[in-house]
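Thought: the user asked what SDR family oxidoreductase looks like in 3D. I have the sequence; next I should run the structure tool and report back without guessing.
Action: structure_tool
Action Input:
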Amino acid sequence: MEARLTGKVAVVTGGGRDVGRAICLGLATEGAAVAVNYRRSAAEAEAVVKEIVAAGGRAIAYGADVTDYAAVKAMMEQVAADLGGIDILVNNAGLALRKRFVETGPEDWHSQIDACLYGALHCCHAAAPFIEARKNGRIISLVGDSSRVGESGLSIVAAARGGTIALMKSLARELGRSWTTANVVSLGLIETQHSDKAWLDANRDKLTRAYPLRRLGLPEDVAPTIVHLASPGASWITGQVISVSGGFSMVG
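Observation:
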């Protein structure tokens, strides 16, 4: 059976680690050529590229800060030139700083809004012409469930990601004429190698009680939903917010 994404080109922001890495590997397994974006660690992104290439896939690492529109635009143009176009954009990069709202200040607001909301805006705007030109494109943005139900200590990132949800719904309507879908995957707490392990261990019992499945998420729990939304099987799903959260939120 032919892989579902053979011939497609995907850009994954923050693709060098954790959830981003799992998404890159999942898309590559289904045949997509993957542009692995990173901001700081070229070594992590190159490790993902090597893993994909070793398995017979095609991937290239691209450094660009999603908060910098000029850098994002240049990256998308280079990806299209190197890999032959862009079919899939996964907005995975972001920043969340846990702090009570009254203890935050403009620096906290700008850093999180720039990464989470402007990052998605920049990537969507720079990639959309390429995606629309290829037809049947996919835009998928990751957010946290705090953006849907609210969460103490995460007010700023929740506000930024709430804007991303509104952006995706609007793009779903606007880009539908080119058969481009735009969806959101909303996550519960994902345990990664870069998590604050001491904090997680100290609060694990309390945290897991909030999840009907009684465990935190893993990067491998997220990637299959992203791959499905990128595939032909999801061609009639657009403008939706899909939770992958172990039941943390059950928003109708």
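Thought: the tool returned a structure. Summarizing for the user.
Final Answer: Structure for SDR family oxidoreductase predicted. Strands lie at 9-12, 33-38, 59-63, 88-91, 138-144, 181-187, 241-244. The first strand starts at residue 9 and ends at 12.
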